[in-house]
Design brief:
Blueprint (H helix, E strand, L loop, with lengths): L2 E6 L19 H8 L5 E7 L20 E4 L2 E4 L25 E5 L22 H7 L4 E7 L1 H14 L3 E10 L7 H11 L3 E3 L5
Parallel strand pairs: 1-2, 1-6, 2-5, 6-7, 7-8
Antiparallel strand pairs: 3-4
The protein binds pyrazine-2-carboxylic acid (VGL) and zinc ion (ZN).
Zinc ion binds next to loops.
Length: 204
């Protein structure tokens, strides 16, 4: 069995003092550090935007964070500026144990399309290459944790499943944005319906 851990966007800007804070985002760091050694391979992602990223509300006149716009036929939520390439907000949380990380995937790097998923950008066509990496190392099971439950973790988990991997979300090692309210509960149901296991780190 080739078990791979995907640590999604455990970055300063998603922690309580950051630009797009996720409530309790920092609390998952010691939890992740406690089980990171149990996997055959570890991949960590970083949201890694340029300042002209299309999902930043600041790049749309008259729009504010959490507004939605229509982009080439798909809905895109607008965000406060966050995880700008090379900024301290884009760094991993300083306490995350990155020593055991085998591969870092940086996503959302094109200005004209956002990327929630670690596999496919928001146009749902452009690949990051992560599926190729996982296939080439013979990954059989993918376990996800990180931020945020209802955006990048959710999209990444759904794509992992679609690419054919047995997929689990370690839910006590995730925190969500929950916008609109109830969003976290909705995506958990959706992931379960898609055949994704929702587990607790104690069962690893
Ligand atoms: C994320 C919103 C915008 C996430 C990234 O990591 O969940 N959410 N960019
Ligand atoms: Zn982002």
């Amino acid at each position: 069995m080739m078990k791979v851990l995907l640590i999604i966007d455990v970055q300063n800007d998603f922690c309580p003092d950051g630009a797009l804070p996720v409530e309790g985002g920092n609390e998952i760091v010691p939890v992740i550090n406690s089980f990171i050694w149990k996997f055959n391979r570890v991949v960590a992602t970083q949201d890694w935007h340029s300042a002209d990223q299309i999902s930043f509300a600041s790049n749309h006149k008259g729009k504010k964070p959490f507004d939605e716009i229509d982009l080439n036929g798909y809905r895109q939520t607008l965000w406060p500026d966050h995880c700008v390439q090379g900024s301290s907000g884009a760094d991993f949380h300083p306490d995350l144990n990155t020593i055991l990380v085998d591969l870092i995937v940086r996503k959302g790097t094109s200005a004209d399309v956002d990327s929630y998923s670690a596999f496919l950008e928001n146009d749902r066509i452009t690949k990051t290459g992560l599926d190729g990496y996982l296939t080439s190392i013979g990954a059989s099971e993918v376990y996800l944790c990180g931020l945020a439950t209802d955006f990048c973790v959710y999209y990444s988990a759904m794509d992992a499943r679609t690419f054919g991997f047995k997929t689990a979300v370690i839910i006590d090692a995730c925190r969500g944005i929950d916008v609109p309210a109830g969003n976290v509960a909705r995506v958990i149901r959706e992931m379960q319906n898609a055949g994704i296991r929702i587990i607790e780190s104690g069962s690893l």
